[in-house]
Structures are given as C-alpha cells and as structure tokens.
Amino acid sequence: MKAMIIRESGEPSVFQAADIPVPRIGPSQVLVRVAATSVNPVDWKIRKLGLPLGPDMPAVLQGDVAGMVEAVGADDVRQYVYCSEQGDKSS
C-alpha cells in the first residue's frame, strides 16, 4: 500500500512516499482503505518534536482518516469506530 512515512523527526520535508505492506488487523481493529486524511495537532507534534508517545520509526502518522472499511477484527468495535461493518464508509 502507499503511505507517507517519516524516518526521523523534523520539518515537513522528512515525509517520504513509500510502499509498505498492508497491516494485519488484530481482534479489536479495523482496516480502512483511506480516501481522505488530515494532519492533526498530535501528528505534527510527533513529526516535528519526536514525542515519546509517538510510534516507532519509520512511522505512518494516522490520526484522522476517512474511507471504506476493508476488514473487521473478531471483536465488536462499534464503540470505537463510527462504521464497523465490512464495506461501510468510515468517518
């Protein structure tokens, strides 16, 4: 899948386009084919400051997304995701 990743903290220029494997979902997760995304304050702080609460590098920052649910884990995730049935549009 295509993604914008960061390998280190810094200015916006640290983002790089990359092909990465489609992640496997766990029992309480959903897989969303992203149609739209945005950069929220936590994303840019992780990118710029390298906050310890951020993901391990290389990282895909992914705070706000909308798209189509491709797969649903075994658990009931409706309390976490607006739409959680396979084929639903999430937002």
Question: Can you give a write-up of this model?
Answer:
By secondary structure, this protein is mainly β. The protein has a single domain (2-90), classed as Alpha-Beta Complex (Quinone Oxidoreductase, Chain A, domain 1). The chain has one helix spanning 41-49; strands at 2-6, 15-19, 30-38, 59-60, 64-72, 89-90. A hairpin with an 8-residue loop joins β1 and β2.
Write the layout of secondary structure elements.
Elements: E1 2-6, E2 15-19, E3 30-38, H1 41-49, E4 59-60, E5 64-72, E6 89-90
Antiparallel strand pairs: 1-2, 1-4, 3-5, 5-6
Q: Can you describe this structure in just a few lines?
A:
The chain contains 1 helix and 6 strands; from the N terminus they run E-E-E-H-E-E-E. It has 91 residues and is mostly beta strands.
Keyword list:
single chain; 91 residues; mainly beta; Quinone Oxidoreductase, Chain A, domain 1; 3-stranded antiparallel β-sheet; 6 strands; 35% strand
Unreliable residue stretches:
none
Radius of gyration: 14 Å
Separation of termini? 20 Å
Q: Number of folding domains?
A: 1
Which term fits the overall shape?
Answer: elongated
Largest sheet, spatial ordering of strands: 2-1-4
Q: What is the chains' assembly state?
A: single chain
Query: SSE order, as H and E?
Result: EEEHEEE
Report the major sheet: 3 strands, antiparallel
What average pLDDT do the residues reach?
A: 83
Residue share in helices?
under 10%
Can you name the CATH architecture? Alpha-Beta Complex
What's the CATH class label?
Alpha Beta
Tally the beta strands.
6
Count of separate DSSP helical elements: 1
State which percent range the strand residues make up: 35-45%
